[in-house]
Amino acid sequence: MPVVRMLRQVACWMLQSRACGCRASVLPSRLLGTSSRQIPTDANFHSTSFSEADQQRVLITGGLGQLGVGLASFLRKRFGKDNVILSDIRKPSEHVFLSGPFIYSDILDYKNLREIVVNNRITWLFHYSALLSAVGEANVSLARAVNITGLHNVLDVAAEHGLRLFVPSTIGAFGPTSPRNPTPDLCIQRPRTIYGVSKVHAELMGEYYYYQYGLDFRCLRYSGIISADSQPGGGTTDYAVQIFHEAVKSGRFECNLKPDTRLPMMYIDDCLRATLEVMEAPAESLSMRTYNISAMSFTLAELAQEVLKHIPELQVTYNVDPVRQAIADSWPMNFDDSNARKDWGWKHDFDLPELVTTMLNFHGSESRVAQAN
Ligand SMILES: NC(=O)c1ccc[n+]([C@@H]2O[C@H](COP(=O)([O-])OP(=O)(O)OC[C@H]3O[C@@H](n4cnc5c(N)ncnc54)[C@H](O)[C@@H]3O)[C@@H](O)[C@H]2O)c1
Ligand SMILES: C[C@@H](O)[C@H](N)C(=O)O
């Protein structure tokens, strides 16, 4: 880059950072490659020119889990099939492999991550890799590596290449000393799972990179997400997906939490739309970098009651798993998402009755197809 242009960018960045109150700072040393110079950072330093800005090039990490395939298909409608790259360390199904670009990416491999971002001219990164609450407790050292070390790699690559970065947080980022009904955006966060601790760390690190290095970090705290065509990956809220599969398949469901357990939940379509909306929200509309988002909140008994309206023969039994129950009992019962609604117009579409009808319609048609075959 010619020296004059670089100096102009640096001066421009310093003016901008003063205007937004951010502190002038330097990138962490590994972001500077082999150079020993310390260059003031600018989130747009390496990014695309203005005319290219509408044509995002997207990377999704951990994309073969419950949410990533749906996110890819949603974003491909917006940005075009070839501009959204799904990645994971697992082998994709043939259907996923044929539906758009897929690439192997282990978020613990920093150089490989950087290579993917550079070679594909990525502008937006959705960081979905994680070990969820229940599997995280069963494998704390792996959860620590994936959820914390992996996040550090993603933050550094995103800051270095001027990406807009989305990292989902969760209701699990709160703990027993947080207000539970409702839980506001800003309150005590002392979660008791490695998953929750890693998500609070992600929220704080993302905000730190935003203030220190100008990284365009955006984060939503998702509720338990309920999806029809993908399986949950080992969380405490998995029962709210599994009940639909079992209701249609066997007419029986054994639940691992108590019937009066109340948690915030959301249908996947609302979750994915919220994710794109916050990523597209003008920077000046965001008064925070991390927002609660919510749609509904129900107990297991209320969920079962709603499903019974459609499948009266369903038998629900309870066999409580103490680990999952302790986690659920420490999480919010209701989520206060008024800031998201006020700042960038968040509004959910699905409440419990629509959710149940949609899920059962999907599974009903699936099982009819299976029977016909
Ligand atoms: N599903 C929910 O209810 C929910 C709720 C709140 C927040 N979230 C967050 O949303 C994100 C996606 O959730 P999900 O339900 O799809 O999770 P999931 O567990 O279903 O999928 C996570 C994916 O990460 C991948 N992964 C693991 N280690 C990896 C590594 N080293 N490198 C690359 N990928 C790796 C796994 O192979 C898996 O496909 C997570 O960050 C999760 O914390 C999910
Ligand atoms: C709530 C969420 O983060 C995830 N579904 C879990 O239960 O771990």
From TrEMBL:
GO terms for molecular function: L-threonine 3-dehydrogenase activity. The keyword Oxidoreductase applies. It comes from the Eukaryota. GO terms for biological process: L-threonine catabolic process. It holds the Pfam family Epimerase. InterPro entries: Epimerase_deHydtase, NAD(P)-bd_dom_sf, NAD(P)_epim/dehydratase. Catalyzes the NAD(+)-dependent oxidation of L-threonine to 2-amino-3-ketobutyrate, mediating L-threonine catabolism. This is L-threonine 3-dehydrogenase, mitochondrial. The lineage of its organism: Eukaryota, Metazoa, Chordata, Craniata, Vertebrata.
